[in-house]
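User: Modeling request: complex.
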Amino acid sequence: MGNSEELKKGNSKEKTDVKRISNENKNDSEVKILAFLCNWCSYVGADTAGTIRLKQPENIRIIRVPCSGRVNPLFILKAFSLGADGVLVSGCHPNDCHYSEGNFYARRRLEVLKEFLPFIGIDKGRFTYQWVSAAEAKKWQQLIINFVKRIREITNK
Amino acid sequence: MKFEDRLKEKIKNIIDDLKLVVGYTSNKLPLRVKPIFIENKDEIENIIFNNLCINNLATYAYSLSQEVDGKIGIILKPCDVKSIIQLLSEELISRERIKIIAVGCSGVIDYKKIQKEIKGSKIISATVEHENIEINTLNKRFNLKLMDFYADKCYWCDIYDNPPVYDEYIESDVKLSVKSKSKYEDINNIEKLSLEETFLFWEKEFNHCIRCYACRNICPLEVCKDRCITQLDEPYWQSQRITLKECKFFQLIRVFHLAGRCVECGECERACPMNIPLLKLMKKVNKEIERLFDYKPGLNIESKPPLLTFEKIEERIKEEELI
Amino acid sequence: MKISHFIKEKKLESWLEKISKGFIIYLPVQDKKRNIIDFMKWENSIGEEKSKEGNKNNNRYEINLSEKTKKSPKHIFSPPTENLFEFEYKKDIEKPDIVNIDLKTPLSIKDISNDSNKKEIDSDRKIIFGIKPCDILAVKRMDKFFKKGDYKDPYYIKRRKGSIFISIGCDNPYPDCFCKLVGGHPFNFEYADIGMVKVDDGYAVIKLSDRVKWLIKEYNEFFEKEDLFDKYQDKIDEIISNSVKKISTSNYLSDISIEKIHFTMEKAFNLDIWKEITRNCISCAACTYVCPTCFCFSIGDEQRDLKGERYRAWDYCMNYYYNLEASGHNPRANIYQRYRNKANCKYNYNFKRYGNIFCVGCGRCIEVCPVGIDIREVVDTVLKNI
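Assistant: Request completed. Predicted assembly structure:
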């Protein structure tokens, strides 16, 4: 099929490092992860994890949204294009959404996005959507540790 | 009576109730047709319908319904009727504004496939016979078998003589007789490649995109093209640069805007001046939506689009456990 | 027209390969994988394939000098996107109320100064090989916009300086070529540095300007001896007249005077026929971006934290947002108004501004339009309806 050498010389307007998806941070040694957390459950859970001083990796940047249903699949694609190595979306458990139905819509949309990502060459493992409630600080810690580990493995393969 | 004459006769009968009729007429360029907009009886002569009519006239449905009062008649092949059905199911146009004049189809020739076969040379003239096409370029003559150059969608079409919804139906003289092919074969071939190969494949394709928006503007379902988010200043979603990164992001915006709505008419791929295989992206998303939610767009006016509804328990979604 | 040199077709690539050591060469290349013919750099296409070992029969790229390219060569001089400058705010903790701005631009002082005395060829030497007379005329038209107006565009001038045009005339024009109807000619080598005609098994040079004589003299080994010229000389006039005959037969624009067309387009402005003939149009940018003389661009500033860029990118007048004013009013909200503006820009307004109509009759817009709009037909219909 060809290698990235061909792209550098062709009519390409820029060359992209395949492993890092985007040119933005290919010189950084540490992976960058973006997380969209719903305001009522996951954000509180993550905040609690910090308050009770659970040890977590520092690679993650959090964006607080009112509900996981607010997350447009294009946010995730834009994050990848701007240099994120991994994206995580977390909301209330299904049936427990603060707005009753938001996470049901989110589940449908994000599942379609997840299945579509390998078709444009992005590893499915770089994106995940989970349900973390306000009381599950320890679960949040475990989620972050596992996710960062997975992203490091994919990026450095 | 010959098919074209029956069509013209039918239009003559109904044109008095209609403000406008959209049909096909001949084009000076070989192997192509173009749309024509008819308002009175003496222009009906110019209507044609043959196996070169690949354009999807439903492109004009939404914009005409905004500009023109009264009923609009559109001549549609059964695959194009699906675009209208999708527009109706999303309530973008109302049923009484459109008169669907469906015609039975025996397949359409894709001139872009022929251009591909002759490696991009210009088709100076072409003669279509029963089973063969003779193509003349500047330096060579080609004799091709007609059967191999139908549009991809014709090879798996099952509604060519049975449009899902219509107001008038004119039956075709000839049956569609092409060897049927698997719809998702090209998607499966791409899925077999490794991640790195797929990534480079798409980068190479989008490298040639010049962001002309022909694909977006010709799509019947992109009704927001005058308010498109890729061209707005507020919110500033996207830079206006014409580079690989921006063109790729624009195409992905289109894919998700049409997720679960695209009826795979193939106009976007036909309109692209740079021959980028855009339809593959739409087909992949449609394949996933069909698998997950058992939904095919464009067949039923009453059905609700899958991404605007939900089930409390999703049987086909297998969520990932990461903890 | 007297033949001064002759090169056989099979030696053409070797000549180009030799020249490519000192120049950047752009030439029309057929990409068999994408099925498109476009101007590409020698080093990225054929040059790269030649340097690789392996099967020479399965080459992806091939020179194609007889067909018209899909896109025009305007991207060589006016690229789709370029950074005009980059800026960075520099702050100093010691002096908090002073902010310095660091500016970086791809131009040098030499480029920005109005030093038009320099006749010699610049170090960024380019050769545009295989360009047709219509496209060279289009570059000359673009020069009027970028170089001769009130503001001289330094980015364009830098790219344009010292370019050499090696033109090959059109011995077999397409049905949608119409250069003769807009004042052009398929063998107009007035602005070319070298002009060639395809005769039998090679190319005869019938125009050679003094400043590039060395391009042939120093590579004489690829060119034929003079005694062969006679057998080709007789055929040249016939080739030229056949081509002119072919391109002059057209149903459109044949009884329209080019000098007066701007006047008649002005009179036709308020006709209702504009609404009817542009109904097919879907207002995309396909015709604009392949046109060799459409020059409009849009400028934007983007900044993140303290660093930013000002860029410019191609813009298209068929865009709904092209004329949208800050108040929200849009004087060209309908498609027919935008198309009317486009046709007038080509045949009317630019004639008034620069003295020439800007359409060169290449016909690319007709080939690329997905809904079959033909600008000849539109202008012809409008003018007949006055």
